[in-house]
Design goal:
- By secondary structure, the chain is an alpha/beta fold.
- It has helices spanning 6-10, 20-28, 47-54, 70-81, 97-109, 124-133, 153-157, 182-195, 253-265, 271-280, 285-308, 332-341, 377-394; strands spanning 32-35, 92-95, 115-120, 136-141, 164-170, 198-202, 228-233, 246-249, 322-326, 348-351, 353-354, 368-372.
- Strand 3 (115-120), helix 6 and strand 4 form a beta-alpha-beta unit.
- Helix 11 packs parallel to helix 13 (377-394).
Length: 397
């Protein structure tokens, strides 16, 4: 057998999708699966975007510019301005989803062996992109008992060494739903300045903040404008995961010029996706308000329901539409797989993402799962009932 690369050997399976074949088999058996594992919103995409897709008049579906359409980038400048983020169109590079933006940022700013400091648990694909770039993740531990808040700055500084080149954050956070405070963001800013680091800031969930606390963008932090690389996407904002449109945003021209080399190598971001995303910018504010209010209700339904199940605990997420919950099981991955292979209640079961895959440190998150509240309240209530029955049956085996 021909060998594959060391990089490929190290690449982890997605904790979000690795159990998908088991879910397929469960459905073949006639079991209804409640999908709580993936952040695929079920809410309608913007009407303006769908109408633009239906009425495309092009006779040739051409390449777009590698940086993305200027008209779309101009529209994004106006969008960001609503969040007190002042940009020019040249600061924005359109990518094939937020994932490509993260990968291009890592490939551009990091050499093999360089280190990124990241709070854990964190979005699982950051680890995959670091492996692709030959970089290493050094993690700062956050805990479910403390609601996944950041530790003191001294804990960060213990990890900083000669190969440290960047800090990676997701705000609001995937998978925990944590929202970084002004104090925590200032703490990160001070470290970036002191040690001359890049700050990769994934802010795709800015529309979904459920507390009175403000959204603090990395671009709101004074004195590190040239250090910030913001990652964005329309996938969650507009329920448009399938059009694969994201953005890499930075005021650092040298970084932008280098990123463009990767953009030119992949030719162009999706043409049809940009048409839909640009049109979606014109959706009235009522669209986002309706989505927000729906998630507020779903959050309450899920968190209240989880914490009523004996032995289950979830802190209250302050943003995004995920939570990390602790279950009364010895191995959450085995339990999640068992739910799909050996269990059903009234013809139903649940699919969740084992949280260990969102940690870099071996052994952490072993009894935790990430749950996405992307189902309506009726389905969430039914899924919670199934989960309670599954835990009861699993621990009686």
């Amino acid at each position: 057998m021909l060998p594959i690369s060391d990089r490929a050997e190290k690449m982890p399976l997605s904790p979000i999708r690795k159990l998908a074949p088991l879910a397929v088999e469960a459905e073949k058996r006639g079991t209804h699966v409640f999908y709580l594992n993936i952040g695929q919103p079920d809410l309608p995409s913007p009407h303006a975007g769908l109408e633009a897709l239906k009425h495309i008049t092009r006779t040739t579906l051409e390449y777009s510019p590698s940086q993305g359409f200027l008209s779309y980038r101009e529209g994004l400048v106006k969008y960001y301005n609503k969040y007190n983020i002042s940009l020019s169109p040249d600061d924005i590079i359109i990518t094939a989803g937020g994932s490509e933006a993260v990968l291009f940022a890592f490939l551009t700013c990091l050499n093999p062996g360089d280190e990124i400091i990241m709070p854990e648990p964190g979005y699982a694909n950051y680890k995959s992109f670091a492996i692709a770039a030959g970089a290493e993740l050094k993690t700062i531990a956050t805990t479910i008992e403390e609601g996944f808040s950041l530790p003191k700055v001294e804990e960060f500084e213990k990890l900083i060494g000669p190969r440290t080149k960047a800090i990676m954050i997701c705000n609001p956070n995937n998978p925990t739903g944590y929202l970084y405070t002004r104090r925590e963001m200032n703490q990160i800013r001070d470290l970036v300045k002191k040690y001359n680091l890049y700050l990769f800031s994934d802010e795709v969930y800015r529309e979904f903040i459920y507390t009175g606390s403000p959204y603090i963008s990395a671009f709101h932090l004074e004195g590190i404008e040239q250090h910030v690389i913001l990652i964005d996407s329309v996938s969650k904002r507009y329920s448009e995961c399938g059009i694969r449109i994201g953005a890499l945003v930075t005021k650092n021209k040298a970084v932008r010029d280098a990123v463009m080399k990767f953009c030119q190598a992949r030719l162009s971001p999706p043409l049809l996706g940009q048409i839909v995303a640009e049109a979606s910018l014109d959706e009235p504010p009522s669209y986002q308000l309706d989505c927000y209010e729906e998630y507020v209700g779903r959050r309450k339904c899920l968190i209240d329901g989880l914490n009523r199940i004996p032995g289950v605990y979830s802190p209250i997420p302050m943003g995004a539409f995920y939570t990390v919950a602790r279950l009364p099981v010895d191995d959450a991955e085995k339990f999640c797989a068992w739910c799909l292979t050996d269990f059903e209640y009234e013809g139903q079961t649940v699919m969740m993402a084992p949280a260990a895959g969102f940690y870099v440190t071996p052994g952490r998150g072993r009894d935790e799962v990430r749950i996405a509240y992307v189902l309506n309240n009726e389905d969430l209530t039914r899924a919670l009932n199934v989960l309670a029955k599954a835990l009861e049956a699993y621990n009686k085996r």
